[in-house]
Design brief:
Distance between the termini: 62 Å
Bound molecules: zinc ion
Number of domains: 2
Strand content: 15-25%
Structural class: alpha+beta
Number of strands: 17
Shape: globular
Largest sheet: 5 strands, antiparallel
């Protein structure tokens, strides 16, 4: 009997076990690698474009998480620092077999690799229902910018409570037959303003009709009064392309790259920056809160994919993400997984434009 390692359960339910060596089914396996049992279907790595996208996200994510770790430590938040390390390690060690890779996803909010998966899942889940809405509108609701120390208070008491009160009010009205039912999907986002050193929490909400959009805007202004929100900063526009707008609002809580002079993207003469300490403040403030959520309606029953079977890999290779190579490498053969080469602009940004100080 061969020895086997205890099964290791990852956050996504993947189990790696070094299986007992079979007697007749591993004639093709390299002599030094025992058969490997994995759960799940793995990730298809046959599309070079997708692979390059993943390599780019991994590169940005890993560069960013190092600075987030520093920001968290500086704030004495070691629990959060651990989470950032999880993002740093996400998908770093992979098993490659038959055009698929198997490995752990960290599933943290600040991981760009996992964010892409989350986006895809949410689109699949929501698009069939939202596409049926006849006159969808996108509403943006803001409050006045706040300082870092007040960010959490404003998120809880301002954004979340404010929206809940409006919903409750209209739930009652709807019950009495005096209003339409409020429904939609909402996404809480917060960006950093490096000029004023402030934060601007806001909601992006997609609703099925203009009437709902107008109600939300009116009630938000009524609730917040001019003291706490600029009336001109609440926007309503028609949704032209539902998929594009849905992707747009399923962000992970904040922009990563910010223009230091706050001039519109692409129009600024100064290259964008990543403000790591500010992002850390935002991630901490958003912790424990659902960033993307629906209200007032149920989704069509999702067609669940068949449960992934456990499988035994006989031929496989181990590949490792190498921060210097910026790719996954098989150190036995020297082969890389994606062949991704970052653009010089991105390399420049990641090397020179990550700022961990709150200026
Ligand atoms: Zn991840």
């Amino acid at each position: 009997m061969g020895s086997s390692l205890a099964p290791k359960q990852s956050s996504e339910g993947l189990i790696y076990t070094l299986a007992q060596r079979g007697t007749d089914n591993n004639i093709f396996s390299p002599p030094h690698l025992p058969n490997l049992v994995v759960n799940g279907n793995g990730t298809d790595v046959s599309d070079p474009k997708k692979l390059h996208g993943k390599a780019k996200r991994k590169l940005i994510s890993q560069s960013l998480s190092r600075y987030l770790v520093d920001a968290a430590k500086e704030a004495g938040n070691y629990e959060q620092a651990k989470q950032y390390w999880n993002a740093w390690h996400c998908q770093s060690n992979l098993i490659k077999s038959n055009g698929r890779t198997f490995g752990n996803y960290c599933k943290t909010r600040f991981c760009l690799v996992c964010q892409a998966n989350r986006k895809a899942t949410l689109i699949k889940k929501y698009l069939p229902t939202l596409s049926q809405w006849e006159d969808p509108h996108l509403v943006t609701l803001t409050i006045k910018t706040v300082s870092a120390s007040k960010l959490n208070k404003w998120k809880e008491e301002g954004m979340i409570r404010g929206f809940k009160l409006i919903r409750d009010k209209y739930r009652q009205r709807h019950k009495r037959g005096k209003s339409i039912k409020l429904m939609g999907v909402k996404s809480l986002e917060c960006n950093y303003n490096p000029v004023k050193k402030t934060y601007n929490p806001h909601y992006h909400i997609i609703v099925p009709n203009r009437e709902t959009a107008l109600i939300l805007k009116k009630e938000w202004q009524l609730y917040w009064t001019k003291e706490h929100t600029y009336h001109g900063a609440q926007h309503i526009r028609k949704v032209g392309n539902m998929e594009r707008d849905l992707i747009e609002i399923i962000k992970y809580g904040s922009k990563i790259f910010t223009e230091p002079d706050m001039v519109k993207k692409g129009k600024s003469k100064i290259p964008p920056k990543i403000y790591a300490a500010a992002l850390h403040n935002i991630f901490v403030a958003m912790k424990g809160h659902r960033i993307f959520d629906k209200f007032g309606f149920e989704l069509e029953k999702p067609k669940l994919p068949p449960k992934a079977e456990q499988q035994t890999l006989v031929n496989y290779e181990q590949i490792f993400y190498d921060s210097m190579v910026k790719d996954w490498v098989n150190y036995d053969t020297g082969e890389v997984l994606t062949g991704y080469v970052p653009k010089p602009e991105l390399e420049y940004l990641l090397r020179n434009r990550i700022d961990k100080e709150l200026q």
